[in-house]
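Long-time lurker. I teach an intro course on protein structure, and each term I like to show students one example going from raw sequence to a predicted 3D structure in token notation. This year I'd like something fresh instead of my usual example. Would anyone be willing to generate the tokens for the chain below so I can use it in lecture? Attribution to the forum is fine with me.
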Amino acid sequence: MTPRKRLPRKNDATSIAARRAVLGLDGAMTPADLEPYANSAESVTGIAVIPVSVAELQISLGEYELDEDGQVVETGRAVEDVVVPLAHTEGGLTVSVQRGARAVAESGGFRTHVVADRITRASCFVCRDATDALTLARWIEAQLPAMQEFLRSSDIPELSRYALLREVKTHVVGPMCHVLWRWTTGDAVGPNMMTRNAYALNMAFVKPGAPVEIERVVLEGNMGGDKKPSYEYFQSGHGKTVIAEATLTDEAIRRVLRTTAEDLEALAWIGTHGAVASGMQSVAFTPASAIAAVFAATGQDLGMVGTSSMAHGTGRRVEGGLHVSVRFPGLEVGTVGGGTKLPTPHEWLSLMGCDGAGKVYRFAQIVAATALALEISASAAMATAGSENFFRAHHERGGIR
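-- Reply from a regular --
Happy to contribute to a lecture. Here you go:
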């Protein structure tokens, strides 16, 4: 077998063209100018084109800001009709989101709430033994004000001024002192900026100032579960904690969703116990499909779908209908930085009024409402007798037979 010519690794126009030529991609569909994409990935060779469809949602959206302690405060609220882009190849997804959104619109609309805003980097300091690790943990917890001042006043060039340290949580196991640095990062998701600031804390504050000897420092010790679902994130959040809710009327459930509140409540009971029996860290139906579709359209980090789609859904019979809600403990979303700067993600974010600074809480609420729309519709299809409607949707739109 003849070895293939070594591919160039730069992202200039000549290197891109050379890679495409070696791989035989000259005739493949690609934009004439790949330069806008060159800063978002290495060895850019083309783009993946995914169809984008849209759904329309009516949402009571809160306006939010952080107070001086980093707590989320609601400052206003308005009902809006929002068009949401969904990038996917999953047959039936958009029509299902739209069906759920229609049932909610006919019942008064979605209502969303931003509860909290924290993202974490989980560092670890290895000490001689548990005694030293406990000593270090107590010292770190007492140093929070000093660490905040260090980050504000330090002239270390790598530091980010947007990543603000809010709290610190320690967990000692054996000689290891695990530390959750908890940050707010403005309108960016923030992993890069909090990584830079956590590294500075670890190496320029904790290690030289610790009351005990530290044998090893690890920037990310995996206690939080970065890009992996975990109980820690399910409970304390990792990103924007958002709740979306709606009260479906019996009429909308019957006419739009073609089921009953009693059937939906029975499905919630079955599904919750099924989740408990399997040890799920989510209690929900299929939120990842909606979240991945919005993420792909808007330039979010797709690796964060796993943690962002952790959810806790509820359904309760009320007079005249069914109250439904879903809590997302950590929607890792941003409206600045990363892939949001690319041409089409920027366009779709603009469509929702979510491009640029000051828009991240709005965006997080729209993501949550979109996922709840899918939860409602998919659950309604499953709740029918024998789950016939769910079967028929996949049979009619399900691709290869």
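Some talking points for your students: Residues 132 and 212 are 6 Å apart (CA to CA). The longest helix spans residues 360-383.
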